[in-house]
Amino acid sequence: MPSTRHSIRFPAIDTNELAQSEAYFTLTDAAGVESRIRFHDYGAIYARRGLYEQLFYDRLKCQSPEKVVAILRHAMGGERRLIHELRVLDLGAGNGMVGAELQKFGVARLVGVDISAAAAMAVARDRPGVYDDYYDIDMTTMTPAQREHLAGWRFNCMVSVAALGFGDIPVRVFAEAFNLVDDEGWIAFNIKETFLDDRDTSGFSVFIKRLILSEYLDIYHMERYRHRLSIDGQPLYYFGVAGRKAGTIPENMIDAPESAGASAPVAT
Fold first, then answer.
1. Of 63, 71, 116, 129, which alpha carbon lies 20 to 30 A from 103's?
2. What's the pLDDT band for 236 if we cut at 50, 70, 90?
3. In CATH, what is the architecture of 64-258?
4. b/e string for 80-111 if b means 16 or more Cβ within 10 A?
5. DSSP 3-state assignment of 173?
6. Whole-angstrom Cα distance, residue 112 to residue 102?
7. What pLDDT digit, counting tens, does each position of 170-191 carry?
């Protein structure tokens, strides 16, 4: 992907004053016009070629795509034969950073899903050929035909990187994707470390803690690592999780966390 450089400026503000999900930067275009863009305003970021990579990977040193894929490979024992047999659903695929990392290891099939049409356009523009297919759909409102089409890929792996816990992917969407994976298929994702804190009673936090302790997911490897830097250079830590699906997540586990805590500690 040809590099495009953008003029980015971070605010002079202590991170304690901004929740992670409220972080923003100022973008100055070629005409000198300034725009304030939140980190979670993915539509505005994806619309500008190379901005996502420059912001999160060059400036903030994000390493989660490589790290989560490495954790998945470690959980699988590093066997290339097994990796070559993976039919992967990339949930919250964004502009294809994780897909490009998985492609390096020769997975058999790779399908991206993201609710953002801007993400789908960014993939087509910047990383054509990475995915066998890419769906910009809301998995909570899929038609039977869409669900059947996705199920037809017979996924034996799901990955989700830097997409969980901030309202970007609701509990039901995660569960829908998880349940599309064959039993004994591989599951890999990352979450901000605070989501595993007992003090966090938000719906997604409750759901993830239940899932990790449940009979539906067998954890093979879990590791705390530096996800990226904050806007003032402080490390933000996440957990990378990899394991195997042991069963279908039931409806009562999906619905209960949604009302567990409306006042979630929100973060990125």
1. 116
2. very high
3. 3-Layer(aba) Sandwich (3.40)
4. eeebeebbbbbbbbbbbbbbbbbbeeebebbb
5. helix
6. 12
7. 899 999 999 999 999 999 999 9
Length of the chain: 268
Cα(268)–Cα(263) distance, rounded to whole angstroms? 16
Type of residue at 50: G
**Taking the domains of the chain in order of start, what are their residue ranges?**
7-59, 64-258
Please tell me the distance from the alpha carbon of residue 4 to that of residue 48, in angstroms, as a whole number.
9
Q: What are the start-end ranges of the E strands in 123-234?
A: 133-135, 157-160, 186-192, 217-229
Q: What are phi and psi of 171, to 5 degrees?
A: -55, -45
- The mean pLDDT value for 3-29 works out to 77
Q: Between helices 171-180 and 203-213, what is the axis angle to 10°?
A: 30
Question: Can you give the pLDDT at residue 179?
Answer: 96
Contact criterion met (CB below 8 Å) for 63 and 43: no
